[in-house]
Amino acid sequence: MNLSATDLCLTVDGVDHLKDVSATFVPGRLHAVIGRTMAGKTTLLRVLAGLQGVDSGALTRQGADFLKTPVWRRDTAMVYQQFINYPHLDVFDNVAFPLKRAGLARDEIRRRVTDSLARVGLADFERRKPSQLSGGQQQRVALARALARGTGILLLDEPLANLDYKLREQLRDEFRTLFSDQGDTVVIYTTTEPAEAMMLGDVVLVMHEGRILQTGSPQEVFERPATTTVASIINDPPMNIFTGRIGSGQVTVAGFQATHVSAHLADLPDGTYRFGLRATDVGLASAGVEGEVTFVEISGSETFVHVAVGETPFVVQIEGIHDVALGDLVKLRLRPERLFAFDEEGTLQRTPSYDLTSVEGR
Amino acid sequence: MTQLDIVDVGHSYRSGAEEERWALKPLRLTFEAGKTYALVGPSGCGKTTLLNVLSGLVRPSQGHVLFDGADVTALPTRARNIAQVFQFPVIYRSMTVYENLAFPLQCRRWDKARIDAKVRQVAEALDLDDRLEQPARRLTADDKQLISLGRGLVRDDVAAVLMDEPLTVIDPQLKHSLRRKIREITEQFGPTVIYVTHDQYEAMSIAQEVLVMKDGRAMQQGTPEQLFEAPSSTYVGYFIGSPAMNFLTLDRTDGHVTLGGRPLTMAWDMPEGTTECQVGIRPEYVEVATEPGPNTFPARLRDVRDHGPQRVLVMEVAGGLVRAKVPREDGVPASEEFLVRLPRAKALPYADGRLVLHS
Q: Model-level pTM?
């Protein structure tokens, strides 16, 4: 029951929306497709759903040509970023609608609607109208409608993007439980947020400019990003990437004092590299290289300080909320033992050593 | 820039409704001159009503609005000399960017040279100086919002800039840069800014002070740091921060506060006679302990959530759920049962849902 894509290509007005996309989607697993806006995520889902054709490539399910399967035979449900419900129908009828159209028996419809509403935590909301629900509840109705159909393929296109951060956090937690037992449904979930992909995905696919750059477990992709682009996409804030040199046992980065080459980089030949360092591995310190604070962002519980060291921008992540003023001069300390090394083309060469021996996720 | 005072202002959209049902329960607030404030809370919390009271769009059922001490409660919007930025950009479609920015000054009959200097200064700050001659309607939504903001900033004497969810129609990828722009510009020009949003992230990033609202009440006003470190109620502890603050119910045994039968010392003491005692502690401050000691408690691991650079451990402690945020390099506890430490300085006492004041 695998859904397999091979070399899917789609060009619109000279721009690659999909470029050589190959992937195998497996029943019972949640595939988190992560990428920035316009990476091709929605296009991929639309192709899988049959709402969009391709220029070339193949799509098969159980050996059958899925591209030739009409939309209504694809056994697919989709949930959109902008939650869509029928405003004149109450919650029960919103969820029941596709089941009625499919001609299911009344008892079966009631059973499925009740069951799927309970799964999304809306058991007591059957008689409410969508307008009487919060954004998060409306999105849960849309999700319940998709679940109730019991399709073999479930596509979720950035379902949390339009919710504020507290609701996003709550639904992310709920989704983790909801999707923990998928039976034999293929679930594909797109997002722009690394934490969401890491937390929900059994498999993570990183997309950029129509291509799939890397596929692997969340742990693999996070700890061994294949390229600087993947490293940037899978980290929030994006991983700091900068140029430096390795030579005579020293790592030199413009503006910073040279440091001894850490063990994990020791066997690399001398030369120029692109280095990556997560925002959590750059610190504000009492001594170090001076930079100017260009912007400060505060998430729920972290402070992201953007610092310019000469021409090179750095982001520093500090736990907790701290008051740092724009224009302040601060000192940065890089943790050399945490450097990712990429070659000049951006291909991964070495990862920090702890990642290789790290405690495996449970 | 002007100081805005809200003196015993309350508002009900329906006359005769009991106070408990008012959209805005009577409250007193001061917005200091030149500071940026964010009003944040879920829909229906009263933040928009409060903004409309400040702008003059809503005449409050009771109380007074003061601008630098002068009572403006009865004045209409146009007499208050405020600038407003709404959810949807408001621009003069037939005018160029330059004309849009110059318009409020022409209405004030400034001379041409002074208008020109001011428009160019503001346009430069907004990064619109290379597009001054373009028709404003051709700009993207985020640049149009900058024009709305710029029209307020060109007026040196503007009392306050009021912004109502100005990032609503902005593409998620551009929100970041527009937020940054708004913060930079308000710091440069220094007007009093009141910014309404439902998004905590946005509120904390933009404002010097945040006012958390719920059910028509002001729950807490403070710097982002104060809201994070010492939320005045369990609600603010939940609303600000991700994951939310942990709260665990405490018992009193022989005059001592205990958690699951073990003694707990908090940052300061819980008063006698409190009915519902809780300890509040942020997930960032919960530590995995290697050996027993003061304030350590047995924990049972329920789930591990991988957020990337951090992991969130979800565990059961003394019958309640506790989340701890730990650096990825610390790994995951090897066994399901282990110890956690709640550092005394970060364990705050809550009585009946309110932070106990430090005496």
A: 0.87
